Amino acid sequence: MSKPHQGALRSYGVKAAPYGFLLPAVALFALFFALPIGYALWLSFHRIEVKGLGLGKGAKSEVWAGLGNYTSALTDPELAHSALRVLGYGVIVVPLMLGLALFFALLLDSERVRARSFARLAIFLPYAVPGVIAALLWGFLYLPTVSPFHYLLDGMGLPRPDLMDGGLLYASMANIAVWGGTGFNMIVIYTALRSLPAEVFEAAKLDGCSELQIALRVKIPMVAPSLVLTFFFSVIATLQVFNEPTTLKPLTNGIPTTWSPLMKVYEDAFTGGNIHAASATAVILALATFLLSFALLRASNRRTTQGAPR
Predict the structure, then answer these.
(1) CA-based nearest residue to 79, from 280, 293, 290
(2) ∠103-106-110 over CA atoms, to 5°?
(3) Which residue has the higher pLDDT, 230 or 156?
(4) Could you tell me the pLDDT band of residue 309, with boundaries at 50, 70 and 90?
(5) For the segment 277-298, what is each residue's pLDDT rounded down to a tens digit?
(6) What is the pLDDT of residue 76?
(7) What angle do CA 188, 230, 112 make, to 5 degrees?
(8) Which residue from 2, 122, 160, 261 has the highest number of Cβ atoms inside 10 Å of its Cβ?
(9) At 260, phi and psi to the nearest 5?
């Protein structure tokens, strides 16, 4: 082979090398992400048609349903009720979790804090506990018959609140999410704080700013992108809440099988056997999450652009 041909092949190999490195990731993405999404979309536009008594071969067939599954899902009161319950749950979880994460991050970033490494590990450690195990642990702490807190309240002659029913149920489940998610958000914010230039804080101290003023007027505005990121992740996690109510459900009668939208999808698919309706509901939830995420990112980018120096 002549040298020009060898050079052409070598040049082609160099150009094709990046695509070769990307091929495994693209294959995994298509197999485990794009293909299931496409199959869910296909199922959402179909339904099972039963002929006669539904017995025998060919009695059940899959036919085109159009937007029928979507219409049924959007008009289902159970889905609306589950969405409202998750909204109330998120109103408690997101502000409290991010507020505690910011507070701990600012506290650990202070020069006066001792045992910073131990405190950082202790705050982050609950995030390493799987969600199902965390829900079980807190669930048994909530139960009046086995909870040590209820024995202490009995000993002091105080009433025992029912943390697994009524309005306190939202606070109980929110506590599990806050306990498990604060550490992760704290690490994200704390990492952003540690990357800030020290000269800014020294200049603020020379101007007479206290630690509180530096935290409120310098540190928090400078880590605003990290706050937006943690808020974005927290909202998505709230919309996808499933482990906590599903794990606590056997311990109380106050949690219905459709407490959250994802529980509604699970109930339709695996208990009701209507995989097509469940697929339509899942697609609606995915679109709602995408639109909300897109709106939050647009609002955040617009604010950042307006506040950027010209």
Answers:
(1) 280
(2) 135
(3) 230
(4) very low
(5) 999 999 999 999 888 888 887 8
(6) 93
(7) 40
(8) 261
(9) -120, 160
Structure tokens at 115: 């045992």
Distance CA 146, CA 137 (A): 11
Output the DSSP codes for 236-285. Answer: HHHHT--HHHHHHGGG-SSS-TTSSHHHHHHIIIIIS--HHHHHHHHHHH
Q: What is the DSSP letter of 53?
A: T
Phi, psi of 108 (to 5 degrees): -70, -25
Rounded Cα gap, residues 307 and 288, in angstroms? 29
Question: Cβ of 30: how many Cβ atoms within 10 Å?
Answer: 11
Assess contact for 69 and 76: CB atoms under 8 A.
Answer: no
Q: DSSP code of 110?
A: S
Please tell me the number of Cα atoms within 13 Å of 37 on its side-chain side. 10
Say how far apart CA 117 and CA 114 lie, in whole Å: 9
Residue with tokens 């630690």: 211
Q: Is 48 exposed, middle or buried (0-12, 13-18, 19+ CB in 10 A)?
A: middle
Is residue 308 pLDDT above 70, yes or no? Answer: no
CA–CA gap between residue 281 and residue 74 (Å, rounded): 8
**Beta carbons within 8 Å of 214's beta carbon, 6+ residues apart:** 201, 204, 205
DSSP conformational letter for 215: I
Q: Which residues contact 109 (CB under 8 A, 6 or more apart)?
A: 190, 193, 194, 219
Which residue in this structure is represented by tokens 């991010």? Answer: 98
- Alpha-carbon gap, residue 157 to 151, rounded angstroms: 10
Which are the contacts of 274, defined by CB distance < 8 A and separation ≥ 6? 268
pLDDT for 44-79, tens place per residue? 999 988 776 666 676 678 888 889 999 999 999 999
Distance CA 20, CA 173 (A): 46
